[in-house]
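Record minuted for everyone:
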Amino acid sequence: MARNRLAVTEAEIRRKEPNPSSVDRAMRMERLFASCNRVLAEVRA
């Protein structure tokens, strides 16, 4: 499910942002937030 959401987010970013370098930077930020959230969830559990 998370992977599916990430794919949707990537598609939305690519549609909004034609500049490939900006897309790559946005996707790196998205992955960073996703990994941080995963770590926080493990810590809370």
Summary: Residues 2-44 form one domain. The chain is about 90% helix and 0% strand. The two ends are 20 Å apart (CA to CA).
